[in-house]
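Researcher: Structure for this, please.
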Amino acid sequence: MLRRDQHAEVRGGFTLMEVLVVVAIIVILAGAAVPLFMNRLEESKRKMAWVNAKTIASAAEQYKINIGDYPTALTELVQPPNGGTPYVEPSALVDPWGREYQYAYPGQHNTGKPDVWSVGGRVGDPNGTVGNWMTSP
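Model: Predicted structure, token format:
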């Protein structure tokens, strides 16, 4: 009978050491996963910027078909001079990093066509530029 009473008082649960070990494992796994996630996020932003630059360039082509020449600035795609329907929404002129896309006509990379590009995540980094002349970001 005495043994049964002692057994009834034993509580189940985790010791402080076990909890600390589990927390340490979670922290280590999170520390390894965050850089991978951030790299994927940056890669996704670059791809999105490239697709958006191509889309804006296509809108400029449509503008040329309807108006007769390429726009002199991207704002003309939002507010065409003839008062027609916008070719793109104003939000389409902002890259994934929150900066406006750049535009140049005539382009240096696209002969006879406009260049549309984003400066990327780090301003001033020449390797960060994403433009419509690229085959992939």
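Researcher: Any notable elements?
Model: The chain has a mean pLDDT of 86. The radius of gyration is 28 Å.
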